[in-house]
Amino acid sequence: MTNIYFPYYKFFKDPLLIKAEIIYALQESRDRCLHHSTKFLSELLITLKNIPPYFEFENENNEFIRFELEPAFTNLEDYLLYFKARAYFDLEDYPSCAHIAKHTNNSKSMFLHYMARYLSMHNECIYERTNLFDSFKPINMRAYMELLDELLILNVYGNEDDSDEESEEDSQAQETSDIDTVNQKHSMLQQEDDSTPKGRRCSRRPRNLRIEKASTTILGKKNKITKRNNTTKKVKVTALAAQSDNNMSAGDHKESRIKREDPYLLWLTAVMLKRIDRCDEAIDILVRAIQIQPCYWGAWIELATLVKDLHMLDALNLRLNESKEYHWMHLLFIAHMYIEFQITDRAISIYDDILKQGNSVFQNWPYLQAQFAIAHHNKREISHAIVAFKTVMEMDPFRIDNLDLLSNLMYVCTSPDELVVLSKYVASIDRYRQETLCVLGNMYSLKCDHVKSVLYFKKAVRINPFNVTAWTLLGHEYIEMKNSYAAIISYRQALKINIRDYRAWYGLGQIYELVKLPNYALFYFTHARDLRPRDYRMLVSLGEMFERSDRIFESMACFYKSLFYDTDGTIMLKLAKFYDRYGDCGNELTRENFNVMNRRALKIGIKNRTTTELNLILSKIYLYLGHYYMDLHYYERAISFAERCRDLWKDTEINTGQSSIYNEVLEHVNALLAEIEIRGGSDSSLASTPGAIKARRFLFGL
Prior knowledge:
By secondary structure, this protein is mainly alpha-helical. The protein is built from 35 helices and two strands. The chain has helices at 6-13, 16-31, 35-47, 76-90, 94-100, 107-127, 141-155, 158-192, 207-226, 230-242, 251-260, 263-275, 279-292, 297-304, 310-320, 328-340, 344-357, 366-378, 382-395, 403-412, 416-429, 434-446, 450-463, 468-480, 484-497, 502-514, 518-531, 536-548, 552-561, 570-583, 588-605, 611-631, 635-647, 659-682, 690-699, and strands at 54-56, 64-66. A two-stranded parallel ribbon has the order 1-2. The chain is elongated and about 105 Å long.
């Protein structure tokens, strides 16, 4: 892992270049009112405050570097119009901002113009929604598509339009010269022969020239009409994005192309394309934006929402590394995607390497600690996650990002006091943030006040319709209220936003399990298992659905996979039912088939295990069944399982290092038989002997 990402770590070891890039990108994001990106970059810049060089505008000593940005305004009028438009933008008066910045050629003013028009439609869509579960599509689709076409023409088709206009001008000039030549020739013919009757006056141009002129005119109109159809657009976007900068024929053309394209307008174009499900074009445009300005974190996050699987991520990484630059922001994107795909060990490894191989200042970066907390949350390492979240809160007491995940952990741990303290804390900072509303919803849910909990989750969804966590928690509450229809819609809304959310898949499986549709539940539990292959809850639920569908082999394989997470004997009890139903069946053929199937399921469920390890697991199952039937006073059946456990090791070659395992199993078998003899002789349910208690501890030490 370290060898793969080694080229990235050199930037974190000496973060001088990181600081220089951040200062430039920070001012670009701030001037365009991109608040989330500004927040991310400024947080990192404060972390690097003690890293030289120190950028100042007046001090010219050797310890400082004079840092001046390229002037963005060519005249005073553009400067004043920009600040007036920005004032209206900050006041959220988007129509006025778009009108003021309409006729400016400055890149910042142009971005404010198009961004204001987009946000005006976005707010209209939010405020005009009467039903919370309606599809989140633009209300005025015609105006939306007009704005999108303007952005596509400006960012994607600009070079082609110029070439088309030049070719049209050349063709018109050529036609004009041809017509002048023909007219001169016919005027000479008219002077020589003026004998044509006036009633039969014909064209002065030859027939072949007239046909050629007519055909070129028709073709020109046809090309002009069909140039902007949707199919051509998709082909053009894909073809332009596929061209790497290394394949450019001339360096001057490359420089002019990069200067012309605005990465922030490209990002806005991709956001709008994503809203109408043109995801492939959005990915291509986002890659172009990142290649121009790799420090814009908003483009990386938007790209992360479009990656569907690991194969797509690998292909995307190859495209981003075509220039072999290995930008440091790309490594943060890779780690972020690993967390999204629940590959938390790789993400934690990357963040650990940044802290170990990078500069020590990154220890104080709140974003990095928050990512550690999210990774431990995904691994269900509750204690580590809570400690990491508290570390972030100590670094920045007013940073409430991702604290809704901390409330989820407190809800799982059933810690009402801590959850109440957290809810009061976040409500004192900002009561109307979406994270605060989710924390309050979890608090009321833990108090079993599901009506208030639903109210707060609905508020969070209205503030941000793309909040996957709020939609999922809303679905959980509807399950508690026995409202299956609303829960299904909530989970499906979450999957529309993020198809990788395993909680939504698992919730849908639970709903269909409640309404007794096991085949539907099996479909959703399978998707949840694919997203979380190491989560025993998914395996147990999937095994139960296989059992209801009479697919015994798949069910046992799932139970064996989850056997290592069995802390209270629940999974062993499920396996006991199979042994009771088929292993002790009177039909000899059924018993043989079950034994063969049991061995296969055990090898599939527990891969890369030796024969001794498999026998050890089977021994624990037999011992558990022996204790189970002994407690039910089925002493003969308990004795049969104890003898089966002893016979299991007769045909196994025991090495010197494995003799201790065999002796321990034999000791527990003898203790079980002794316990059965004591209980059978007394005819009463006596308390467990010390040997039996020791055997139970041995059972769950998988």
